[in-house]
Specification:
Helices cover 24% and strands 25% of the residues. The protein is of the alpha+beta class and 564 residues long. Bound molecules: fe (ii) ion.
């Protein structure tokens, strides 16, 4: 039996934790081993704060001449101040090619609601200094979150991250996925990449399929100054959406995965491994498992439940095309039956049961679901949907229908034919909760039965939205706030609208869609959410461009809701 030296202990701990070094107070301030020559070009990050713990992250790139398989050792420090005059904890950590030289430490035994500073130290270089914060306990008056999704490198610079990094008062940053995109250099949203200096590099210019590809893509994204600044400014609480694996992922495949690209589950495992290596996340079942749904308590004010509506449980998306006859007719009956199938799921039974149980036991004043796809009912008149598909070939019926709807809302009488035009609605996006309506209704009923104050945040659409969440009886059960993309193009690009027409369509959609309170269809940015005892406030912050790192805030919009 070998003696349990400190070195062996660290090795054993690394093996047991799947590569994350757990630092308890007992290990604090032990003499660090001599660090290796390493640099930290991808910055630092922290994440998954608890009342007494937080994950610290960096990547320690070995100096030239370092043996390809040799480990790299660096020292980490956690201090009360950003000058590191009051260092509270210090330790050594070893990484290597097995985890792409990324370093993750789960620092435990910390104080609640406390700001800490951290850095990593190599033989002759230091990382930038990161700032993080633990979650509060007890009575909490306010929680402030920044919410992001959909940062697509070739589409532009991550100025939305940079804007949020200028502020110091975030309790946490929520990232709702599409942190990276899997496409090749000539794929989605790459048209201007060369012109603006965001082309994918030659050694990572194809669609990413294997572990080496995914790792390189993360390394590229992490060179963005705005992203580095935000990671250094506040702890992230992140979930993936589809593009961390491939477009429109579901539990057994993805729209952007074909048999020629190899086994889907092998690809997914590589994608998840790289995600765990590069994100400051503490997966609740360890890094060998794909489960990332997990909860965070912000004292007695807010319980946050991060969900996976994408990878582990989702049934395949329905597709309108599957219900179109050769003559262009739509089989509404068959489509309706498929949509009403009670077995269709986004969450999968295990996660769904976990969420039901967790919500039932939750004591927080607000219950916040951090998840990927829009939950609100986005039911558009069928005529408007058809005009989206026709891409301007037919006359746009939207202005006329908006007028009719506005008239009916003001109590003016409509003809039967006019009422029928408004009443024939279809869900706009079958990849969202609208395509899984039975499971959504069950969730709404559960929340209403438990009398919870429900707020949902979503990403995925690249646009800003605010929805009332209503059940099938029309009862308001919660509120939804959706964040615009960091750079990915939104509806304005898909429908080829200029700024003025996009603003007009946004106003029209808010009239036509019953539960939609606000939307912005053409600007990039992020969303701030502020909770207190009485109300929740959403502030959407938009930026003026993503073509260079010179930018300014181009406006904002605020919505305040009192308790539901
Ligand atoms: Fe996206």
């Amino acid at each position: 039996m070998s003696r349990l030296t400190r070195r062996n202990f660290i090795k054993a701990a690394l093996a047991a934790s799947g590569g994350v070094l757990v630092s308890t107070p007992l290990q604090a301030m032990t003499r660090p081993e001599l660090p290796s020559e390493a640099s930290f070009p991808h910055g630092v990050a922290s994440g998954d704060p608890l009342q007494d713990a937080v994950i610290l992250w960096t990547r320690a790139v070995p100096a030239t001449g370092h043996g390809a398989q040799d480990p790299v050792k660096v020292t980490w420090e956690l201090a009360r101040d950003n000058d590191f005059t009051d260092v509270l904890r210090r330790g050594s950590v070893e990484t290597g090619p097995r985890r792409d030289y990324t370093v993750k430490i789960d620092v435990q035994g910390l104080e609640p609601d406390t700001r800490y500073y951290y850095r990593f130290v190599g033989a002759s270089e230091q990382s930038p200094v990161g700032r993080t914060k633990t979650l509060p306990t007890g009575s909490v008056e306010q929680v402030k979150l920044a919410v992001f999704s959909c940062s697509n490198y070739p589409a532009g610079y991550f100025n939305a991250y940079a804007l949020a990094a200028q502020r110091e008062d975030w309790d946490a940053v929520l990232h709702l996925g599409d942190y990276i995109y899997e496409y090749a250099a000539d794929g989605y949203a790459t048209e201007r990449s060369a012109e603006i200096g965001r082309a994918l590099p030659a050694d990572n210019s194809g669609e990413i399929l294997n572990l080496a590809d995914y790792r390189k893509r993360y390394a590229l994204y992490r060179t963005d100054a705005g992203l580095q600044a935000l990671h250094a400014a506040a702890p992230f609480i992140a979930v993936w959406d589809d593009h961390e694996v491939a477009n429109d992922t579901w539990k057994e495949g993805a729209e952007n995965h074909s048999a020629e690209e190899g086994d889907f589950f092998e690809r997914r495992a590589a994608a998840i491994q790289a995600y765990y290596e590069w994100l400051p996340i503490r997966p609740p079942m360890g890094e060998s498992k794909p489960q990332i749904y997990r909860s965070f308590q912000f004292g007695d004010l807010l319980d946050l439940h991060m969900l996976d509506t994408r990878v582990i449980g989702r049934d395949q998306q329905l597709d309108f095309a599957g219900y179109l006859g050769e003559d262009g007719s739509f089989d509404g009956r068959a489509f309706g039956a498929a949509l009403a199938n009670p077995d269709r799921t986004l969450l999968g039974p295990t996660q769904r049961n976990w969420l039901a149980e967790t919500l039932a036991q939750a004591k927080g004043h607000w219950q916040l679901l951090g998840q990927q796809v829009l939950m609100g009912k986005m039911h558009l008149p069928a005529e408007v949907m058809m005009s989206f598909y026709s891409q301007g070939k037919k006359e746009d019926p939207t202005p006329e229908l908006v007028q009719l709807k506005a008239a009916s809302l003001q109590g003016q009488p409509l003809t039967e034919a006019q009422r029928a035009r408004l009443a024939q609605v279809v869900p706009y996006n079958l990849d969202a909760w609208d395509g899984y309506a039975v499971e959504r209704e069950a969730l709404y009923r559960h929340v209403a039965a438990q009398s919870k104050n429900l707020v949902v945040v979503a990403g995925d659409t690249h646009n800003a939205w605010c929805n009332h969440l209503t059940d099938d009886s029309g009862k308001l059960v919660g509120l939804e706030f959706a964040t615009p993309s960091v750079t990915s193009p939104g509806m304005e690009s898909y429908l080829k609208l200029d700024e003025k027409s996009a603003a007009e369509l946004a106003r029209g959609m808010s009239v036509l869609i019953d539960d939609l309170q606000y939307c912005n269809l053409h600007q990039r940015g992020f969303m701030a959410l502020t909770f207190n005892r009485e109300q929740v406030q959403a502030d959407w912050h938009f930026i003026d461009n993503i073509d260079s790192t010179e930018f300014s805030e181009a406006g904002s919009h605020s919505v305040v809701h009192s308790l539901v």
